[in-house]
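Reopening this one. Same input as before:
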Amino acid sequence: MSRELFSPKHPDELWRVMESHPDAVPFAGGTDVLVRLRKMLISPPMLICLDRIEELKGIEDRGSHLFIGAGTTHSTALAHPLVIQFLPVLAQALRVLGSPPIRNMGTIGGNIITASPAGDTLPPLYALGAEVELRSGEGSRRCSIQDFILGPGKTALAKNEILWGVWVKKADHYNVHHFEKVGLRNALAIALVSLAALLRISDSCEIQEVSLAWGSVGPTVIRSPETEQALLGKTLDLRTLENAGAIARKAVAPIDDVRAGAHYRRQVAGNLLLRVIEYSGEQPGRPESPE
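Same output, byte for byte:
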């Protein structure tokens, strides 16, 4: 079928066309929407390309937070000095997201809106306590990313709203930033299980603060306050991580699918936590992991 394509340059143009065409589908890089079109999973009467709206792009220092525009490409975010300095765990995830062409086209906002449990940016954003900013012609609102993503492919986006950007608190007080995913191959892999881990560790290797988030082990990214609590105040060593890993395996809720079984995913979720100790001494300014 034929369909219209609208490419506004300014937000006011966008709000007008969204109001008059409520069934239109907005997109930026198109790495998800265009694939779904080709597979005939969606068939909207109009597409709205957001790529020409410059206000949707860029990364800004907002004091205690960074603001990342929804139209910012993965490549731009990966190379940005503010992300490298304040959000290393997000940079690590972006480094293994797709291929260079996908990173050049795909956007932060698109990865969030797709709401895939395997989305590579999502575990870091959950662990970082990110908030999304949503806008429409009527105004704007913010909510936590946990409240925004409701399930696979489902979000709390209201009618005529778009994702404008994401607010992320600077995380430079953590001295261990770790993201890792396990896939069926070493590159261009969809995560079977992924983990974003942020820890603040004292010079004596006591875990003073921790934030964890797992991907691909539930309908949304999984947080486990019980696992985090089991780590707080403990020494970063293998025994501590093994105890926490056992709790994590009970907290996740994986499924069997064509890529992996639930039992495998559950085991890997705990095992990835064990590997944090291998990386804790490799990051500049981090305490050496104990022997």
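So the earlier flakiness isn't reproducible anymore. For the record, The radius of gyration is 20 Å.
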